[in-house]
Design goal:
Number of helices: 6
Order of helices and strands: HHHHHH
Radius of gyration: 17 Å
Largest sheet: none
Mean pLDDT: 90
Strand content: under 5%
């Protein structure tokens, strides 16, 4: 699973940006609340999975690769104005990682609680 986290992150990051044009008439997640939340949904689902199954280290690798995918998509498929704002975009797109980070940490926390619960069940036997 560790080898697939980077390509998955790149793809989901690009999808989180590309979905905006499919659900609205805008290009950027910041300009469309529907697009923003759909993108956050996809990013967060995978963040929960990686946090739960693989822990925080892999979660951060996923988030960084998703961040890279978002910015690459915006640069490659955006209009010239989007390319002109690319450096500022590297900073502003960090806000798009807040929800996925939160949900990924919640996934890790759920994994931790579940492992403690399973250990207590084994000790009770």
């Amino acid at each position: 699973m560790h080898r697939t986290v980077i390509p998955v992150g790149l793809a989901i990051g690009a999808l989180s940006w590309g979905i905006v044009a499919l659900v609205s008439d805008r290009f950027e997640p910041f300009d469309s609340s529907v697009g923003f939340y759909w993108g956050q949904f996809f990013l967060s689902i995978f963040a929960v999975y990686f946090g739960y199954k693989n822990g925080l280290k892999i979660l951060f690798v996923y988030l960084f690769s998703a961040y890279t995918g978002m910015n690459a998509y915006a640069f490659i498929f955006g209009v010239s104005e989007a390319r002109g704002w690319a450096l500022l975009g590297l900073v502003t797109t960090l806000i798009l990682l807040v929800y996925p980070l939160f949900f990924g940490v919640m996934g890790k926390l759920a994994s931790f609680v579940q492992s403690k619960y399973n250990k207590s069940l084994k000790q009770d036997k």
